[in-house]
Design brief:
CATH class of the largest domain: Alpha Beta
CATH topology of the largest domain: Rossmann fold
Oligomer: single chain
Structural class: alpha/beta
Bound molecules: iron/sulfur cluster
Distance between the termini: 59 Å
CATH architecture of the largest domain: 3-Layer(aba) Sandwich
Strand order of the largest sheet: 7-6-18-17-16-8-9
Number of domains: 4
Number of helices: 22
Shape: globular
Number of strands: 28
Helix content: 25-40%
Length: about 750
């Protein structure tokens, strides 16, 4: 084939075929850059090609600044547009945190945007079928149903309209939804944090005064020791792996606590494979060791820490022997980490999302704060704590006060909302996110079926759409503008790259339209997402320096807080002078809401109950894989489906010794509330006695590889005070043909 011979890419979308011609030379150049950069990318809907680089200018009309909506790395991007359609996306090379890298999830957005499975017009349930209606008719229907609730229940309407909130595609969408419902007098917006990092974010807030990460990623280059508490960086946030490499090149030691060998293991100095849910016990052991060896900072403790005595008392029983028994980490390995900790002058604790997936997670995070506090590692260069998902920048209190009904009732917890739904006391549910994200997902599904009117805001005919009475389809990120925040406390802005298809509508626009109709005119006139951003900034002193103009020019985003236009941006410690944001200004370990300082087994742990350990002797764990984001979105990508394997269960060969099972067998993964089928994947990567299964498979997707049974249907309904538990309880394996273990 001659160099100038053209390769034709055929892109099919909603019945139309677009052909993009690309020369062999350009094709090879783009492909080589992609592979050389180690970045996989979307395949322009064919699922066969790999691009990781910009398309040459002649194939592009326009390049628009964007950002990925999936994870909190929040990669900023360049979106390439030809003839009004997105033809490629690549990472913005000027982004300080990512240096232009992206992961396959972000790249899959091009294909997802033009998926033939996308819903492009509002659909009203009509018996077993759907009837297409206009956006304005759908909007009126929702508004009228909500207003009817207020009319029928004038004295107690507050908890009869509820929203399951998503991980919003923009901050303005989140704000518009909150403004609309709160101004109308409905407080119950169930946050995604209920099934995510709510517990660790809450514990950080109670101990230090803010729920966001106390430091930023660049500080790991200044540390001596970084401890990853279940933070599976390379698999979950592959773009951050570069920082682990840079840190090790500078001589930083990286310790990794995880029951599984994962891609992250390759970038660490050593790993302790501990039993799921026992991080807190290990931390108590470290605290005991450091106090006994006088390797803590007495002056700092005296001046900056409340609750040190209780911490020492709680740690006293955690001898190395006891720690080894609870955590399954051999005593010598535990002591080696303890000595490393004692020697290090600058240590960063990086908390993974998995820490939040247990009923003991708030205790664990308080203990990690205590560990960092007594070693004077909470504030300053090369010190601090990072929360993988970062947490939401604060400072919006005044804004929330302005845009609320004067008599707004207190928000109910998710469990109370679910109880109300079960009892038929909820009339309208704005279902913006997956019910499958909650434990005992079938219980949640059943409760939703008791709601009179369910409106789904999504993209595909997935499990949630099938529960709805009305579907009002949402835009994808290239079709909407707005800001988002990331794990480094950074705020980024995304411009709209292409028009909205069909009658899809952005979340910020839908909730602004709805707000105008249900708040009697109290909702302000909003024409652009930027209007909401500026309204928020006006009321939020710590956002004053993050102007829209600056934001739009920044390839990295701007770090919050940024209270003055005249000051430089501040990365690194949120508490630079050990001035914490608690009422006392000190680190608070003595927190009545959390009870005494302690560590307890996760609920349902077979190690806590002899009877359970006979019935369900194995320890359950689940998690994300590099390819997938939650249970929705990416399950509809053919490109992603190439790398997925449906339901499988990772098991150590010792775990099935003596059982009639072998690698590749179809088995039941059973818990006390149900079972799913999964392929047995034998591997020494996981601790004996522990199983791991991927969270993402979804029943409704037509894409092989992505489809499978919903894992959370077998996760028992255990909660701490803030969020749900997903790991650490008992389970067992049984061969599908009936063989009994
Ligand atoms: S999912 Fe996260 S790491 Fe991947 S492209 Fe999006 S923001 Fe970047």
């Amino acid at each position: 084939m001659a160099d100038d011979e053209k390769t034709k890419l055929r892109i099919k979308n909603h019945g139309k075929v677009q052909t993009l011609e690309i020369s062999r030379r350009d094709f090879i150049k783009a492909g080589a850059l992609a592979v050389g950069g180690g970045i996989l990318s979307s395949s322009l809907a064919s699922g066969k090609l790999v691009f990781g680089a910009p398309l040459p200018g002649k194939y592009v009309d326009q390049e628009v600044d964007g950002c990925c909506q999936f994870c909190q790395v929040r990669c900023t991007t360049k979106v390439q547009v030809k003839n009004g359609r997105v033809v490629n996306v690549y990472g913005n090379p000027d982004n300080f945190w990512t240096r232009g890298a992206m992961c396959p999830k972000g790249k899959s957005m091009v294909e997802l945007t033009y998926s033939p499975h996308r819903i492009l017009h509002p659909l009203l349930r009509d018996g077993d079928t759907w009837k297409r209606i206009s956006y304005s008719a759908a909007l009126d229907m929702v508004a009228n149903r909500i207003l009817r609730v207020k009319k029928e229940f004038p004295d107690n309407y507050a908890h009869r309209v509820v929203m399951f909130a998503p991980l919003w595609e923009s901050r303005e969408s989140e704000l518009a939804a909150q403004m609309a419902l709160h101004l109308a007098g409905f407080p119950d917006i169930c946050s995604p944090g209920d099934a995510c990092i709510g517990s660790s974010a809450t514990a950080l807030r109670l101990c230090l005064g803010s729920s966001v990460s106390p430091t930023t990623l660049d500080e790991i280059l200044n540390a001596e020791l970084v401890v990853l508490f279940g933070a599976n960086i390379t698999e979950m946030y592959p773009v951050y792996t570069r920082w682990l490499v840079l840190a090790r090149e500078k001589g930083v030691r990286i310790a990794y606590l995880d029951p599984r060998i994962t891609p992250t293991s390759n970038f660490c100095d050593f790993q302790l494979k501990l039993r799921p849910g026992t991080d807190g016990a290990l931390v108590l052991g470290l605290i005991r060791f450091l106090v006994k060896e006088m390797l803590y900072d007495r002056d700092y403790v005296a001046s900056h820490v409340n609750g040190f005595e209780e911490l020492v008392q709680a740690a006293e029983p955690y001898t190395p022997k006891r720690v080894a028994k609870i955590t399954w980490v051999p005593e010598d390995k535990f002591l080696s980490l303890a000595r490393d900790f004692g020697k290090s002058k600058r240590t960063i604790a990086w908390i993974g999302g998995s820490i939040s997936r247990y009923t003991n997670s708030m205790q664990t995070v308080r203990l990690i704060v205590g560990l960092q506090a007594i070693t004077r590692n909470l504030s300053g260069t090369g010190k601090g704590i990072m929360n993988v998902q970062g947490g939401k920048p604060g400072g919006g209190e005044k804004f929330y006060e302005v845009y609320r009904h004067p008599d707004l009732a207190h928000k109910l917890s998710f469990r109370k909302v679910l109880y109300n739904m079960k009892k038929g006391r909820v009339d309208v549910l704005l279902l913006n996110s997956s019910y499958r994200r909650y434990p005992d997902a079938n219980r949640v599904k059943k409760a939703i079926s008791n709601v009179d009117f369910v409106i789904y805001r999504g993209f595909f005919m997935d499990e949630e759409a099938q529960l709805a009475d009305l579907i009002i389809p949402a835009t994808m990120v290239y079709e909407s503008e707005g800001s988002q925040y990331g794990a480094q406390r950074q705020v980024v802005w995304r411009n709209r790259a292409v028009p909205r298809p069909g009658e899809t509508v952005e979340d910020w626009r839908f909730y602004s339209d709805l707000g105008r109709k249900i708040t009697g005119g109290a909702f302000p006139a909003v024409k652009r997402a930027g209007h909401i951003y500026e309204a928020f900034r006006k009321e939020a002193p710590t956002w004053k320096g993050i102007t829209l103009e600056r934001l739009k020019k920044s390839p990295t985003g701007i770090t919050w807080p940024y209270p003055s236009l005249d000051e430089p941006e501040k990365r690194g410690s949120l508490y630079p002078n050990n001035q914490f944001l608690t009422p006392s200004g000190k680190v608070e370990l003595r927190i009545p809401a959390l009870g005494p300082i302690t560590w307890k087994e996760p609920k349902g742990s077979p190690k806590a109950n002899a009877k359970k350990s006979v019935e369900f002797p194995l320890i359950f764990s689940q998690g994300k894989v590099t390819w997938h984001w939650q249970h929705t979105y990416t399950n509809w990508s053919f490109y992603i489906g190439q790398f997925s394997k449906g339901n499988y269960v990772l098991v150590h060969p010792q775990t099935i010794e003596g059982l009639d099972m072998k690698d590749g067998d179809l088995v039941y993964l059973e818990t006390k509330i149900g079972k799913i089928k999964a392929r047995l994947n034998l591997s020494k990567a996981i601790l004996p006695g522990v199983i791991w299964t991927p969270s993402h498979p979804a029943p409704a997707t037509p894409i092989p590889g992505n489809s499978g049974e919903t894992v959370n249907t077998i996760v028992p309904y255990y909660w701490d005070k803030v969020s749900a538990q997903f790991n650490g309880f008992g389970c067992r394996l049984r061969k599908v043909d009936g063989a009994t273990p």
